[in-house]
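Folding Problem: From Residues to Backbone Shape
Fields: amino acid sequence; protein C-alpha cells
RECORD BEGINS BELOW THIS LINE
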Amino acid sequence: MLATLKKPETISRVELWLATFIYISILATLFSADKLQDTPQHLFKKAGLPFDFYENYLIPNSIRYTALYLAFLLLNFRIAPRLFQREEVQNQLYLVFLVFLITGFTLGVTETYSRYYLYGTYASNEEVYSIVFRNGYGVALLLVFLVSIYSLIKYLGLLLINDSDAIPHKYRTVTKDSLGAMVVWFISIILLLVVEADSFLILSWGSMIPAGILVYCLGFFWFIPAASAKRKPFRSYLLRMVPALILLLPALFLILTILSDDPETSMGTAFFNVVCQLLITVPLAWVLFKRYTKGNEALYVLQKELGQTHANFDFLRSQINPHFLFNALNTIYGTAIQEKAERTSEGIERLGDMMRFMLQENMQDKIPLAREVEYMNNYISLQKLRTDPNPQITVQTEIEEQVQPVQIAPMLLIPFVENAFKHGISLREPSHIVVTLEVKDKVLYFDVHNSKHPKLANDPEKDKSGIGLTNVKQRLQLLYPGRHELMIRETRKEFFVHLTLRLA
C-alpha cells in the first residue's frame, strides 16, 4: 500500500510550482513596494525612530519569506513523505523540531529589524525580544501544524485514488480533480497565513475552494443527473442549483463570522463567494459532466461493437472448425454405409442449411427467432443421427413453433445445446438431453438439461473449458443489458441452464 506513496509526482510538481510562484510573487511585491504606502514607515515615525527601506523592510522580509519557503519545501518534500512511509521516524521527528527551532529563530531575528519601531514603544529590550521571538516561533509552529494537516489529507487522498478496485472510474476522476484543487488551496492558505496577508483575502480564498468543491460535487453527482432527463436540462439544473447556493450563503456567513468576528466583512466575502460559484463552478460542473458523459457513451459504443465483433468471430471460429466438420462428415459417412439413402440425404441437407445459416444470417445484428430455432433444430437432428442408434441415449425436445414476429441476435441459443451434446453424451453410459423453448408476450423461456460425464484421460479436450458459455454470457450482457436472466446450475452428474430473454 505504501508503495503507491513513493512517487506522487504529479501532485509534487503542482506543489513545487505553486509554492515557488507565490514565493517569487511575494519577493516581487517587496522589491516594488511604495516606500510611502506599502512599508511600515509610519510606525517608525510614530515611535520617533529612523526608517531605512533596505535594513528595516526589504532585507529582513526577504529573509523571512525565504526561510518560510525553504521550511515548507523541507517539511513537505523530504520529511512528510518519509514519515508516511515510516522511514527513520525518530530522525524525521528530530528534523521537524530542528526546522521549527531554526525557522522560529530566523523569523524572530528578522522581526528585530522589520519591527524595530517596537523599541520606541516598550520600556525594555527584553519586552521587545519576547514579542518578536514569541511571534516568530508562533508562525513557525503554525507552519508545521498546517503542513502536517495538509500532508495527512494529501496522502489519504492519494491512497484513496490508488485504491482503484474500490472506486469506480467516475469517482476516481472527480477525486483527482478535488485533490488537485485541495492541494492548490491548502498551499496558498498556508502561505497567506504565514505572510499575514489581508484578512479579507484570506477569508475569500480560504472559503472559495471548499465551497467550490461542495457545489461541484452537488452538481456532478445529484443535480445534473436528475436534470438530464428533463426537456430543458440546463434550466432544470439551474433551478436546482440556485436554491442550494441561497442556502450556502447564510452557512458561509456564519462560518466566516465565527472565524473573523467581523460580520460586515463576512457578509461581503460570503456574497462574493456565492456569486463566483454561480458564475464559474456551476457552468464548469455542467461542461465537465457533459464531457464525461459523451466520453463514456463513445467508450460504451466502442466496447459494445468490439465485444460483439470478437464474440461473433470467436463463436464462428468455434463452430466452423475442422474438428466439427470432420465429426459431421464421419457421421454422414457412417450413415451412408449403413442405410445408403434417406438418413444420409437428411444429414447432408441439414448440414447444408447450417452452413448456409452460419455464413450468411450469422453476420446480421438481428434475425427472426424462427430462423434461430430452425438452425437449432437442424443441429439437434444432425446430432441425433449419431445418437439414435444407441438405446442408452435419449434426446427430448419441446420447442414451440415460432409464429410471433420477434427477432433475436443470432447464435445466442445454440451454445447451450452444443454444450449439452459435448458434455452430456457418452456412448458407453446412459445419457440424456432435454431442450425446451417457448415464447410468451415476447419473452423467451429456454431450458437445457443434460447429464454429465467425466472426460477420459486421453481426451484432447479434457482440460479445455471452451469459449461457448463464456462467449454467450458476454454477448447477453452487451446486447440485452437488463433484459435477460441466465441461471446455470451444476451437480456432479447433471447440468441445468435456464434463460429468460425479453425480445422487445
